[in-house]
Amino acid sequence: MPEPTDDTPWLDRAQLRAWMKLVAVMELLPAALDQQLQRDADLTHFDYMVIAMLSETESRTLRMSALASATNASLPRLSHVVSRLEKRGLVARCPSSEDRRATDVRLTDDGYAAIVEAAPQHVRTARTFVIDALTDEQTGQLDAITTALLGRLDPEGRFAALTYPRDDDAPAICEERLTGQEQALQ
């Protein structure tokens, strides 16, 4: 390892150990989430996030810029994925009713059915690899740690990660809504 210099504060052993573990999680977790979703729902994790965020809205519609924020994505990346989902009939693009210069993305009935079917196993996978591996105290610490990191990575607050879910009771509402959706599809 190069010698530390005055202008580069190298990591000490404890910092390096924590950093290398974080790098491993950043590499392994997306692959594990993608593998499960590809196998069970023929979706990537990002595909899932796009249709999930649309399903969270009353109208199942968001402006492209709002959907980019909600999914922590750039507009070019989102546009590419929306095109792919559109070809599969899961979403549809339409001119915004509020601003004709903007484009909205609407979740189709097939897209809604896809998220209702995919969500339970995806939640089980998220629990298996992350939530159930932590104590309640560690989950709170993870929230605090990721908030601190996001403060550096997204200082302007362009992405919705810091504000999602919108209310303290949002997970219960989301779960109740999903249960009702599942019953409606049967």
Automatic annotation (TrEMBL):
Domain HTH marR-type, first and last residues per copy: 15-151
Alphabetized InterPro entries for the sequence: HTH_MarR-typ, MarR/SlyA-like, WH-like_DNA-bd_sf, WH_DNA-bd_sf
One family name in Pfam for this protein: MarR
GO molecular function per UniProt: DNA-binding transcription factor activity
PROSITE patterns documented for this protein: HTH_MARR_2
GO biological process, one term: response to stress
Signal peptide range: none
SUPFAM superfamilies attached to this UniProt entry: Winged helix' DNA-binding domain
PANTHER family: MARR FAMILY REGULATORY PROTEIN, TRANSCRIPTIONAL REGULATOR, MARR FAMILY
The protein, known as: MarR family transcriptional regulator
